[in-house]
Amino acid sequence: DTEVTQTPKHLVMGMTNKKSLKCEQHMGHRAMYWYKQKAKKPPELMFVYSYEKLSINESVPSRFSPECPNSSLLNLHLHALQPEDSALYLCASSRAGPEYFFGSGTRLTVV
Amino acid sequence: AQSVTQLGSHVSVSEGALVLLRCNYSSSVPPYLFWYVQYPNQGLQLLLKYTTGATLVKGINGFEAEFKKSETSFHLTKPSAHMSDAAEYFCAVSFNDYKLSFGAGTTVTVRA
């Protein structure tokens, strides 16, 4: 199994809603990532978890809250988002180094 | 600081023609280098990667890339373009520090 599975594939939420994005992998990777990608732009790193601990936070606003419940799961909790937060959110996993696997993403629209 | 530059935001080729996408990196030490492809409304798919060893790397879908340390380059090529190659292509670098940095991307269109 070399897949990173993201759910849901599409999400529309209001600015007062609370929602969560989910990411799952069963490759035994101990590093997991959240990226944000705006249209026609490269992915931008948001968070890195290494061995289930948050190791990198790229100055992301607190309305985005990551969580790593176990080595296979990564969540991104969303609250009070703004329309400019609409984007494709990509999850990835890797070994400690050069082997990154990406999910197909969640297309988020904030209305 | 590490960085990667993709020359040309848009490349248009005829079906059957050579595809050449350019990528240069800025680093004092050789990084790990990657090429990813992204089709509309999809995630990123790894085409190929260079870590160590052979500098000519073969990937999926007939793509290959050559790591040239002296030129700090990792250009992607495919001898004969197919309509299905129309997509966004990203070059990326990593130094085994959990940070994967992407170039700005190159949009490839294929003319029939």
Structure characterization notes:
The complex is a heterodimer of chains A (111) and B (112). With 111 residues, chain A is mainly beta. Chain A has strands at residues 4-7, 10-13, 18-25, 31-37, 44-50, 53-57, 64-70, 73-79, 87-94, 100-102, 106-110. Chain A starts with a strand and ends with a strand. Chain B has 112 residues and is mainly beta. Chain B has no helices and eleven strands. The model of chain B has no long low-confidence stretch (mean pLDDT 92). At the A-B interface, β5, β9 and β10 of A face β4, β5 and β10 of B.
Q: Which labels suit this protein?
A:
heterodimer; A: 111 residues; seven-stranded mixed β-sheet; 11 strands; B: 112 residues; six-stranded mixed β-sheet; 0% helix; 56% strand; globular
Brief sketch in words of this structure:
The complex is a heterodimer of chains A (111) and B (112). With 111 residues, chain A is mostly beta strands. Helix content of chain A is 0%, strand content 59%.
